[in-house]
Design a protein that fits this description.
Distance between the termini: 55 Å
Helix content: over 70%
Radius of gyration: 22 Å
Largest sheet: none
Keywords: G-protein coupled receptor, Glycoprotein, Membrane, Receptor, Sensory transduction, Taste, Transducer, Transmembrane, Transmembrane helix
GO molecular function: bitter taste receptor activity; G protein-coupled receptor activity
InterPro entries: TAS2R (IPR007960)
Main location: membrane
Number of helices: 10
Order of helices and strands: HHHHHHHHHH
Structural class: mainly alpha
Strand content: under 5%
Protein name: Taste receptor type 2
Oligomer: single chain
């Protein structure tokens, strides 16, 4: 029996180490993004719209990572507190708000890259290309509609769970919540996240198509221009592919939890989902730093002490 359990404990400890490492990387990466952009804002008295998006994205992800850490800490130190209906409702609302802005700000950042780098002759695209700030602002404003709907549906579900547990005293609220309500709450959350995922996937596929067609046209020009253009396009595609990979893994982790919901009672499965879950907000900050020359230079100068 001990020989069987030992690999499980090793795997569990490995997942915990990876999870803690992701939290550290995520906080350092997002903190660096926010700090550099804020310092540039103070120094130059102005900041670009993309830098504003990056700062807001970094702040929302730091909030999300610290919220996750706080929830895990509270559940470890005060397990009874996390079984209260009011606490569960507050945590769910904070999760929805944090994830909403984290995902939608990342999506808007992707849309801004698409509008700036993409090259289409379509009149609608050209209209949006010259009004990037307005297009992104309207997108963020419209994203508040699914946010309010998600909060409303989740709170209605939790209130129904509270009422049901009060009518039937044979089981507690927390047991009824985990057996009946939590899966529906997770379903609401996943469904509303598919909206920005679809928007982001569409914009990035169009961007890849635009870069590919532009590269084909550049092959007719001189060799030097072709090499410079190819290098720039390869870097852009690397950022796009890395973002899509992390985003897809994040969505698959949610679908996996819905598909194998009964495994959420297993600590090993929970740790595995948490590791996958945190990879997106943590490692995407590294992708953004490495993909931006100014951020990369600022990071290297910081590491070199100057």
């Amino acid at each position: 029996m001990e020989h069987i359990l030992q690999p499980v404990y090793i795997f569990q400890n490995a997942l915990v180490i990876i999870f803690i490492t992701e939290l550290i990387i995520g906080n350092l990466g997002n903190g660096f993004l926010a700090l550099v952009n804020c310092m540039n804002w103070i120094k130059r008295k102005k900041v670009s719209f993309v830098s504003q998006l990056l700062t807001a994205l970094a702040a929302s992800r730091m909030f999300l990572l610290w919220l996750l850490f706080a929830c895990l800490l509270i559940s470890s130190l005060y397990p009874d507190l996390t079984t209260a209906a009011r606490v569960i409702k507050v945590i769910n609302n904070l999760w929805i708000i944090g994830h909403h802005f984290s995902i939608w700000l990342a999506t808007c950042l992707g849309i801004s890259y698409f509008l700036k780098i993409g090259n289409f002759s379509n009149s609608l695209f050209l209209y949006l290309k010259w009004r990037v700030k307005k297009a992104i602002s309207v997108t963020l404003l419209l994203s508040l509609i699914p946010l309010f709907l998600n909060i409303l549906l989740v709170n209605l579900e939790i209130n129904e769970c509270i009422s049901e547990s009060q009518r039937n005293i044979s089981y507690s609220f927390i047991s009824h919540y985990h057996t009946q309500c939590h899966r529906r709450v997770l379903s609401f959350y996943t469904i509303f996240l598919t909206i920005p995922f679809g928007v982001c996937m569409l914009s990035f596929l169009l961007l890849i198509f635009s870069l590919w067609t532009h590269h084909k046209k550049m092959q007719q020009n001189v060799q030097r221009c072709r090499v410079a253009s190819t290098t720039a396009h390869i870097k852009a595609l690397q950022i796009v592919v890395a973002f899509l990979l992390l985003y897809t893994i994040f969505m698959l982790s949610l679908l996996l939890q819905l598909w194998k919901y009964e495994l959420l009672e297993e600590s090993l499965f929970i740790s595995f989902c948490q590791v996958i879950y945190v990879a997106f907000p943590s490692f995407h900050s590294c992708v953004l730093i490495l993909g931006d020359m100014k951020l990369r230079q600022a990071y290297l100068s910081l590491c070199c002490g100057g």
